[in-house]
Amino acid sequence: MIRFAINKNGPIGLDIGSNSIKMLQFVQSGGNIRLGAADKVQCKFDMGDDPQKSKEFIVESIKEMLRRGAFTGTKVVSCIPNDSIKIKSLRLDPSDSEKIEGLLQEELAERFNFDSSKDEIRYITAGKVYHGSELKNEVIFFATDRKTIENHISIIEESGLVPEAIDPVPCAILRSFQRTMRRQVDQDIVRSFIDVGNLYTTVMIGSCSRIYFIKQIPSGGKQLNESVSGKLGIGIEEAMLLRSKIQHGNTESLNNTTIQAVADAINRGVEELAREISLCHKYCAVTFRGDQPKVAILTGGEAYEKVFVDSLKTYLNIDIETAHPFQGVDLSNTSFVRDENSPLCEWAVAAGLGLKNWHVNNYIGANNERD
Fold it and tell me: What is the percentage of the chain residues whose pLDDT exceeds 70?
């Protein structure tokens, strides 16, 4: 009997960031996975300045990517941007774990200034921790207001897509690693996943089957670009281009003085960020008593910044790796333009979104994600 391979398309993963929009779709053929389509649009302005202009730009960008790409179907999994979601950890008595829904109506909703009957609040249980001599449950909550959800869905629907699920960024990132870390030894290793984006840096500590800690740090590429712009007296776009050339080794047209000036301009910012991340590690070492990260894995567009990586090595004193979200994925049948030596770590969020409810099982319960 002849068996023909059946192609199975996953949902479109849509990552709407503050300075770029990324879309991709995986295809499973037999026992292999390949990238069926991928596209990216760079934003030419600050999308936080004019909400209506931003919405129109996003909708038109998605429509254009659908027109010129090889995307199949209309189902999409997207994420709520970091600046639109709040993350908070609370320590609860073990007996309170059965009363979490009630707590949403009281303490948590009050802290977020949200109405839990209207707004969206989800949670995951990080594990048991000691608070003094008392044993507590550490619970991580995600919250966003209903208006944000409605606006997000409106963008997707006006783009001609059908929303299948909405993810928080940390959940998408962790899911992108489950595909390649399926051995039991990989599942149990504690890692630090650090996503360095344009506006925020998100730190997640845990294994691929359990998250201990999540923190959003309001610092990223935008602040570093502003530092370079101010020190060298150039525009923001020129500063971005200059940093990108240095990060990817395209320095033939640059002299050593310019390269050093860029490093000096961002040095204070990256040191402060590295120090903040090291405090996250210290907090987890004390809170979870011994479950310390063995390695830090970097994702996001700013993960290519060598000055930041060097500073992080000094502060964390552990191995630093750059994520390869397409490891083991066949990229040959797509027009995906890339540097052959690039790990494409900035695609980790989109990759995790494209894998939801399709290729690997979620590592966290249904309470944390909205479908």
Answer: 83
- What is the radius of gyration, based on Cα positions, of the chain? 21
pLDDT at 93: 75
Task: Assess whether 20 and 52 both reside in one domain.
Answer: yes
**Type of residue at 44:** K
CA-to-CA distance for 76 and 151, rounded, in angstroms?
15
Phi, psi for 234 (deg, rounded to 5):
-125, 170
pLDDT in tens, 178-209: 777 766 566 678 899 999 999 999 999 987 77
SS3 114: coil
pLDDT at residue 110, as a whole number: 75
Q: Is 89 left (phi over 0), alpha (psi -120 to 50) or beta?
A: beta
Residue 371 lies in a domain: no
Q: What is the model's pTM?
A: 0.87
- Gap between the Cα atoms of 198 and 216, Å rounded: 12
CB contact set of 2 (below 8 Å; sequence gap of 6+): none
Other CB atoms within 10 Å distance of the CB of residue 311: 22
Contact (CB, 8 A) for 229 and 239:
yes
Among 150, 147, 137, smallest CA distance to 90 is for: 137
Where in the sequence is the domain holding 125, given as residue range(s)? 86-143
Token representation of residue 159 = 């783009």
Tens digit of each residue's pLDDT (9 = 90 or more) over 104-130: 666 777 777 777 777 888 888 877 776
Q: Do 173 and 276 fall within a single domain?
A: no
Ordered strands of the 120-131 beta sheet: 86-92, 134-144, 120-131
Report yes or no: 297 and 277 within 8 Å, Cβ to Cβ.
no
Residue 330 CA to residue 323 CA, distance in Å, equals: 17
Per-residue b or e along 227-240, where b marks 16 or more CB atoms closer than 10 Å to that residue's CB: bbbeebeeeeeebb
DSSP letter string over 63-106?
HHHHHHS---SSEEEEEE-GGG-EEEEEEE-GGGGGGHHHHIII
Look at residue 257 and give its three-state secondary structure.
Answer: helix
Bridge partner residues of 6 (DSSP): none
For position 301, which CATH number holds? Answer: 3.30.420.40
Q: What is the DSSP letter of 132?
A: T
